[in-house]
Amino acid sequence: MPILSEGMLILASASPRRHELLTQAGLRFTAEAANLNEDLLPNEAAAPYVQRLAEEKAQAVWNAHRDSDTADDPLVVLGADTCVVVEGNILGKPVDSADARRMLEMLSGRTHAVLTGIAAISAKRTVRDLDITQVTFNVITDVEIARYIASGEPLDKAGAYAIQGYAARWIPRIEGCYFNVVGLPIARTIAALALAESESGPVVEKI
Questions:
Q1: Helix%, strand%, coil% for the chain, nearest 5
Q2: Neighbouring-strand partners of residue 84
Q3: In sequence order, what DSSP letters do the residues of 28-46 get, joined into one string?
Q4: What pLDDT, on a 0 to 100 scale, did the predictor assign at position 1?
Q5: Whose CA, among 52, 140, 142, 200, lies 20 to 30 Å from 60?
Q6: From the CB of residue 112, how many other CB atoms can be counted at a distance below 10 Å?
């Protein structure tokens, strides 16, 4: 049975990349940002951080629309959050150009991890999952970093780069899901949505 063949899916995100990926996967949905505080908690590690934010985003949007959920028109809300980790440092979206430069200098010539937490919430259950991809960068010169920052592309991206954009020229190798680096691991997301809308299974599930 197609995912959400009889229901409604809301993506709890304003990310155009996630919107494009879900559309590419053939899903019909609406999008609504959760607008939550995304600061790290004290001593919070990367994996719990992205999983927590994904669930908090999905739960906030679910709560706002729970009255629209019916047996004939079930509601599922999808939340996701992505961060970059290099040498133990968690990199979210840069706050300004100087922060973007700091991040790109850290990534230059190194392998880092991209983590995306996902959460699919329905009236039946909450499904959580996490995907990790290893990304290797070539050495980036100061001139290249300055040119990239001037393009504006890094300023709204976790880790200050877009693998599907200009930064692809610096990435000779990845290990894991490419779509995870873009912002949403599609295969895992489809599995999570299918479980969230299924008629059987535990109330809370981690894939």
A1: 40, 25, 35
A2: 91, 114
A3: --EE-------PPPTT--H
A4: 39
A5: 200
A6: 19
Could you tell me the CA-to-CA distances from 174 to 130, 158, 180 in Å, in that order?
17, 16, 11
Displacement of CA 117 from its chain's centroid (Å): 6
Using the 8-state DSSP alphabet, how is residue 121 labeled?
A: E
> For tokens 């970093």, what's the residue?
145
Q: What is the C-alpha separation between 133 and 3, in angstroms, rounded?
A: 25
pLDDT (tens digit per residue) in 35-77: 898 889 999 999 999 999 999 999 999 999 999 988 888 999 9
Per DSSP, 94 falls in state -
- Of 45, 173, 179, 49, which is closest to residue 111 (Cα–Cα)? 173
Cα dist from 31 to 147, 169, 185, whole Å = 32, 31, 17
Task: State the pTM of this model.
Answer: 0.90
- At residue 154's C-alpha, the angle toward residues 150 and 156, to 5°, is 125
Q: For a pLDDT cut of 90, what percent of the chain falls above it? A: 82
Q: Is 81 a catalytic residue?
A: yes
Residue whose structure tokens are 């629209």: 68
Contact 83, 158 (CB under 8 A): yes
Q: Rounded to whole angstroms, what are the CA distances from 3 to 14, 53, 147, 195?
A: 21, 24, 42, 10
